[in-house]
Amino acid sequence: MKKLITLSFVFLLVLSATAQLKTNLVFFTEQGEKFYVVLNGIQQNAEPQTNVKVTDLIQPGYKLKIIFEEESFGEIDKNLMFNQGTETTFNIKKNNKGKYVVRYQSEVPIAQAAPPAPNQNVVVYTTTAPAPATTTTVTHSESTTVVNDGNGGGENVSMGVNVNDNGAGVNINMNVNASGTAVESSSYSTTTTTTTTSTYSETPPPTREVYVMPGYNGPTGCPWPVDDVQYESMYNTIASKDFDESKLTIAKQIIGSNCLTCSQVKQIMLLLDFEDNRLDLAKFAYGHTYDIGNYYMLNDAFDFESTIEELDEYINGYRW
Fold first, then answer.
1. The dihedral sign for the CA sequence 278, 283, 288, 289
2. Per-residue model confidence as pLDDT tens digits over 57-104
3. Are 91 and 160 in contact (CB under 8 A)?
């Protein structure tokens, strides 16, 4: 009985530690282009930056949008998946076609993350867009001019004062004649100079409960696998085709827009007769599988050790 209580306590501690895992994401541009980071429809940094770190993320995936300060660069939309409890870095650069893309760079356990760089903008993940930045311009100027008519009989003095402080402006002009005649005029005005930085915000997607697979606590490749009814329909559609190539094509089309479990992927692989096609499908499905920690289960679908080794090499080099 005591051993059972101890094991239960340890299990609860493990679940608690997993639930509290937080992640940092770092985004930077190679050529210094400034940008905003938008996660699940909420802008994170108030001003465009070249290097942004977003901390305290608790989900394994987010909808990412990169908005450049220079509008002609366009925008980047991407579904971002990453390992929890890490600091994961992404590089924003142009691909071979000259289009801006987000590419995985590296990751380290969050406890080993380096301190922020001097030029790095660090923000704590927020579900509220940052307030617009406001700047008030304050100026103060004063000038005095003395004019003598050269006859020694009289002296004219003119003075102008211009003060603008926190939006309140005062202008004073004065002319004085030494002969005893003085004319004075004053004027008052109020001026406010404001610079506003706009922020991006859109309605975030509805919050969805996190799927938990009974008995599984490993890494995930997608957030929510299809249910049994959806899977049966997918399976029957693929199985209805006569040729391997047709089955492979339809399977990729279906899996590419859905999330499956390892057991479901394996069942679809067994519909294919050729080993090369099974390997092709296993590689393709990896990024669309929930319990990727169970991917070793697919090894039983292969006849050759070399195929298993090739799949293992592919998984080890996979980048989200």
1. positive
2. 988 888 999 999 999 999 999 988 888 889 999 999 998 889 999 999
3. no
Contact assessment for residue 220 and residue 60, using Cβ atoms and an 8 Å cutoff: yes
Q: Name the class of domain 21-131.
A: mainly beta
E strand segments, the chain: 23-29, 35-39, 42-43, 51-57, 61-68, 75-81, 86-94, 100-109, 121-124, 134-136, 139-148, 155-165, 168-177, 182-190, 194-196
Band (pLDDT 50/70/90 cuts) for residue 21 is confident
**Token digits of residue 250:** 């339809």
244 within 8 A of 277, measured Cβ to Cβ: yes
Q: CB within 8 A of 228, min separation 6: which ones?
A: none
Q: Where are the domains of the chain?
A: 21-131, 136-195, 228-316
DSSP-assigned letter for residue 205: P
CA atoms within 13 A on the CB side of 77: 2
Which has the closest alpha carbon to 169: 140, 143, 144? Answer: 140
CA 240, CA 232: separation in Å to the nearest integer? 12
Backbone angle region of 301, left / alpha / beta, with phi > 0 → left and psi within -120 to 50 → alpha: alpha
CA distance 298 to 263: 8
